[in-house]
């Protein structure tokens, strides 16, 4: 039998896609603005996407381009991402508050005023931004909680997952050790090494052995009965039956596409100390990734 792999580190989270502005399309919208909202056209005209955004701060690039930037303590000249600009464009189009007609706020200030400012928040603009992640080294128990709470056609804040199948592929024998089992044991004699890891390792190996044993025996029976190896649907039936024997701590991987509004809700609920410890670890890492890449999309969210 093969040896099971035990994961004790943080999950893997990688950004694999995000919204990208089509500049020709934005400029075509600008032509409409010129014709029907001439009071929104800046004195210098509209020749670039940034000409629609009345930011008070610009970064001059070596090739002469001007890029809208936000001042910050850590990065004085950070250029907003297309995701962040798209949400601002959506808000400014609602009110036709482009260029000089709009308040001269940075992208971060504008988004914060729409989503967390006084009065009625205008959060519908936040759904235009999209971001896709690759998640790995999380348990199927945690992925089930994500899907159970954050997916559904009748929800206004949801994610779209594409998760690793247990019918088409044999599980690689990777198991996620719960953070509680990683804590050192303390008693009157002092601090001892975590007691839960070795127990979990034994249980995971026993589980994986049983899983592989079921597959091996099922294949042998099929071969005896049919004189050929199981393929296609016959193979799927064996794997789907075997997958029910895996512990909920077995690892999974998937691609998840979501939006800033859903993520802010998720951070508020799952970064909380009352959340499941493995889910907390996952949510806090995801929050760090998001705040690093799209800080303007998460006003009020603390690092």
Give a verbal description of the structure.
- The radius of gyration is 26 Å and the shape is elongated.
- 40% of the residues lie in helices and 15% in strands.
- The chain has helices spanning 23-36, 82-95, 107-116, 140-150, 196-226, 232-243, 260-270, 277-293; strands at residues 5-7, 12-18, 58-60, 66-68, 131-139, 160-163, 174-176, 185-187, 190-192, 251-258.
- The model is unreliable at 56-62 and 71-76 (pLDDT under 50).
- A hairpin with a 5-residue loop joins strand 3 and strand 4 (66-68).
- The strands form 4 sheets. It has a 4-stranded antiparallel beta sheet with strand order 2-5-10-6. A two-stranded parallel ribbon has the order 1-7.
- It has 303 residues and is an alpha+beta fold.
Please write out the topology.
Layout: E1 5-7, E2 12-18, H1 23-36, E3 58-60, E4 66-68, H2 82-95, H3 107-116, E5 131-139, H4 140-150, E6 160-163, E7 174-176, E8 185-187, E9 190-192, H5 196-226, H6 232-243, E10 251-258, H7 260-270, H8 277-293
Parallel strand pairs: 1-7
Antiparallel strand pairs: 2-5, 3-4, 5-10, 6-10, 8-9
């Amino acid at each position: 039998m093969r040896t099971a792999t035990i994961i004790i580190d943080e999950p893997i989270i990688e950004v694999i896609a995000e919204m990208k502005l089509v500049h020709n399309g934005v400029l075509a919208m600008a032509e409409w603005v010129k014709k029907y909202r001439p009071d929104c056209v800046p004195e210098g005209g509209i020749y670039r996407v940034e000409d629609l955004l009345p930011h008070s701060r610009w970064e001059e690039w070596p090739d002469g381009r001007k890029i809208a930037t936000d001042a910050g303590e850590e990065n004085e000249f950070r250029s907003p991402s297309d995701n962040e600009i798209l949400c601002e464009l959506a808000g400014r189009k609602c009110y036709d508050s482009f260029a000089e007609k709009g308040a001269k706020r940075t992208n971060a200030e504008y988004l914060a005023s729409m989503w967390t400012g006084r009065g009625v928040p205008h959060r519908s603009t936040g759904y235009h931004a999209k971001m896709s992640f690759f998640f790995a080294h999380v348990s199927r128990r945690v992925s089930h909680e994500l899907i159970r709470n954050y997916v559904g056609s009748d929800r206004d804040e949801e994610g779209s997952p594409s998760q690793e199948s247990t019918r088409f592929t044999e599980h690689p024998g990777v198991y996620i050790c719960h953070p509680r089992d990683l804590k050192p044991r303390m008693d009157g004699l002092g601090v001892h090494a975590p007691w839960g890891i070795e127990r979990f390792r034994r249980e995971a190996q026993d589980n994986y052995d049983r899983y592989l044993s079921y597959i091996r025996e099922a294949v042998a029976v099929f071969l005896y009965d049919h004189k050929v190896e199981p393929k296609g649907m016959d193979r799927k039936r064996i794997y789907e039956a075997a997958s029910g024997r895996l512990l909920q701590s077995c690892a999974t991987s998937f691609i998840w596409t979501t939006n800033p509004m859903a993520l802010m809700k998720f951070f508020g609920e799952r970064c909380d100390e009352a959340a499941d410890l493995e889910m907390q670890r996952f949510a806090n890492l995801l929050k760090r990734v998001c705040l690093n890449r799209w800080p303007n999309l998460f006003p009020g969210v603390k690092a």
